[in-house]
Amino acid sequence: MKHFTMRELIKSPTAQRLGISNEPTEAVKANLTALVEHILDPLREAWGAPIVVTSGYRSPALNKAVHGAASSQ
Fold it and tell me: 57 lies in a domain?
């Protein structure tokens, strides 16, 4: 992970405000790492400028709290 950190992918002011854990499982961390290595880092390289991630991951509890789609990946 060259241009992104796990911390920025899981950061959620809403989770903090509501006291909801947004800590991913090891399997989810592996998927996020693959996303960054295969998609986001190459996209950032091609774009040539920073890309801001506003919602990289929501735990099931956080997704429910924000009324996210039940089928959300």
Answer: yes
Residue type, 15: A
Task: Return the amino acid letter for 31.
Answer: N
pLDDT digits (tens, 9 = 90+) for 5-39: 999 999 999 999 999 999 999 999 999 999 999 99
Range of the domain at 48: 6-65
In total, the chain counts a number of residues equal to: 73
Q: Measured between alpha carbons, how far is 9 from 59 in angstroms, rounded to an integer?
A: 12
What is the value of pTM for the model shown? Answer: 0.87
Domain total of the chain: 1
Q: What is the largest CA-CA distance in the chain?
A: 37
* Distance separating alpha carbons of residues 47 and 10, to the nearest angstrom: 23
Q: Which amino acid is at 10?
A: I
